[in-house]
Design brief:
This protein is α/β, with parallel strands linked by helices. It is built from five helices and seven strands, in the order βαβαβββαβαβα. It has a five-stranded parallel β-sheet with strand order 2-1-3-6-7, sandwiched between helices. Helix 1 links the parallel strand 1 and strand 2. The two termini are 23 Å apart.
Amino acid sequence: MSAEVRPIRVLLIEDEPANRALVRAILARTDGSGLPPITLVEANTLGNGRAQLAAGDVDVALIDVRLPDGNGLDLASELGRRGPTDRPRTVIVSASVLPSERQTALATGADAFLGKPFNRADLVGTLLALIG
């Protein structure tokens, strides 16, 4: 008898509907990628994202930098200060992909950086690297 695999809970904090739809579409088609099942939770503001983080277990947080109510790097820094076992794995998602901007994003304590636009392989590869 095989044990059921617990779905990975991914929180996407992104204000652009098209970007949320892209992530939703990619994650809906991850069969055969090596990823376990994923439950996607979406938030379109930092406030909504913080509420989702407070409400329950999140394994991975995909955090956009520029949001209508603030900077996603601030949330990533807050999460980074919690320590590696008391927080979700964090991925900064940004269209600002210059090396200095990537370095600034990772200096928050984030586990990874994903530049926009990204494709299926980029997202799946990042998630695989974080959750194994």
